[in-house]
Amino acid sequence: MARIKEQSTIQENKRSAFEECPVTYVMEKIGGYWKPIILFQLLSGSKRYSDVRRAIPAITEKVLIQQLKQLEADGLVQRKAMPVVPPHVTYSLTKTGMRLKPVLYAMAVWAVDDSKEHGAVFRRNLKNFPGANDNA
Amino acid sequence: MARIKEQSTIQENKRSAFEECPVTYVMEKIGGYWKPIILFQLLSGSKRYSDVRRAIPAITEKVLIQQLKQLEADGLVQRKAMPVVPPHVTYSLTKTGMRLKPVLYAMAVWAVDDSKEHGAVFRRNLKNFPGANDNA
DNA sequence: ACAAGTACTTACCCTAAAGTATGTATAAAA
DNA sequence: TTTTATACATACTTTAGGGTAAGTACTTGT
C-alpha cells in the first residue's frame, strides 16, 4: 500500500511558481486558446468588434466578448465606444498589449517553419504579417 | 423574436481558422496553461522527470505526465528511458522544440517588463534565462 | 523487514470554460 | 413594415481539463 501523498497545497504552490517563472506570469494573462489569436488580429491595428468576429469565425460571440473583456481588464486591449446607433465599438492594443508583438511574431515564425516541415500551408504568409518590418 | 443564428459548424470553421492564422497553429501545439511552463523548464537542457516535477511543484503528476506525452506526440520533446531500476527517464527539447526558444524568451522579456510596472518581482531574472546569450 | 525513491497508471470526481440558443435596443434601409 | 445590422447579455447544457487519491514494480539503503 502506498502512503498518502501530499500534493495538497496546490493553490499555495501556484503562487511560488508564479513568482519564479516568467512564463507562468504570461500564461496568467494570455493563457488559453483564444487570447493569442484575438491579440494577433489586433496587431494590424484597431478593429471593430464585428470585424474581429468575422476574422475569427470559429469563436462564438459569447466567448469573444468574454475574452475581450478579460483582455481589457488585464490592460492588454482598449475599448472605444462611440455613442451612436447602431453601436460602433473598436478594440485596439494598449501599449502593454503592443509589447506582446515579439511574442506573437515569434509564434508566427515558428508556425510557418514548422508547417513547412509538416506540409501545412498558410494563406497568410509572413510578408503580410502586421508589424513584420518594425520594432518586432 | 430573433432569428435562429447559424454559428453551428464550429468544427469546420476551426479548420479554416487553423489554416489562416499561424497563432492558431501554435496554440494547437502549446496551448493551455502548463505546456509553455514545461517547455521553459527544458530550455536549460535535458532533465529527469523528477527534476521537472520538482521544478514545477504546482503541477500534479497526472497532468505533468499527460502534458509531457502530448508534447512528445507533437514532436516538441524527446523522451529517453534507460532500462535500469529505479527507472531513469530524461526529457529534452527536440529540434522543433528548440525553435520555440524565441517565443519563450519573448514571453519572459514581456513578463519582466510588465511586472516592473506592476510591482511583481521574479527571483529568476533574465540574466539567468537559459539561452539568453545565443541564438534567441 | 521495512521505508524510500523512481516513473509512471488508473479510477473517480469536480469545476471552469466553452458551446447552444436565445433576447435586446435602436435606427436606417428595403 | 419587416428586415438587417450592431454590440452585446443571459440562461442552460456539455465537455474537457484538472485535482485527489491511490496502486505498481523493482531495488537500494537502514
From TrEMBL, chains A, B:
GO MF: DNA binding
Pfam family, one: HxlR
InterPro entries: HTH_HxlR, WH-like_DNA-bd_sf, WH_DNA-bd_sf
Domain HTH hxlR-type: 21-119
Keywords: DNA-binding, Transcription, Transcription regulation
SUPFAM superfamilies (UniProt xref): Winged helix' DNA-binding domain
PANTHER family xrefs: TRANSCRIPTIONAL REGULATOR, TRANSCRIPTIONAL REGULATOR, MARR FAMILY
Protein name per UniProt: HxlR family transcriptional regulator
Organism: Chitinophaga polysaccharea
